[in-house]
What we know:
Blueprint: E1 3-7, H1 14-25, E2 28-31, H2 32-40, H3 44-67, E3 73-76, H4 85-94, E4 95-101, H5 104-111, H6 125-143, E5 146-149, H7 155-167
Parallel strand pairs: 1-3, 1-4, 2-3, 4-5
Amino acid sequence: MSAIILVGPMGSGKSTIGRQLATALKKEFRDSDHEIVARTGASIPLIFEIEGEEGFRKREAAMLDELTQLDGIVLATGGGAVLREENRQHLAQRGVVIYLYASVEQLFERTARDRNRPLLQTENPRQKLQQLMEQRDPLYREVADMVVHTDDRSIRSVVKEILVRLRQEPKYGGG
Length: 175
C-alpha cells in the first residue's frame, strides 16, 4: 500500500487534513516537521536560528528519506520539502503525492498569528508568502499526482474529495 504524501505551502492544511485523512483510511499519520522536533528536542525556529535554513533542510532530507520508505502511512511534509531534487524524487517515487493548494491570501490569513514559522518572521509576511509560492508552486506541481484546492473549504470537504480521487488513482491501486 503506497504512502499518501501531502505537499504544499505552510498553512495549506497538510497536518490538519493529513490527520483526518489518516483517520478516515485507518492509517498511521506522520508529520516530517513534528518528527524532526521530536528527534532533536528543538523547535523548528530554534533549528533555523542555530543551524540556518540549510542545516534544517539537511535534517528534513534525511527525515523524508526515512519516512517515505514506510508503507501505508499518511505523511505531511514541510512547505520547503520540495526544494531539494532528492526529496522530490523520493516523494514522487514512494507514494501518491497530493498537493494541497491554497491562494496567498488564504495562506496569509491562516498563518498571520503563527510565530512558529521562521520564514514569515519578516516585515512583510504576505510578500514572503507570494515569493515562496512563485518559487515552490512549480515544484509542488512537478511531484503531485493530484492537486486539491483548499481555499474557503472545510477540512471535511477536502478529505472527502481526496478519498474519492484516491479510489481513481492508479498509483494507489484504484483506477
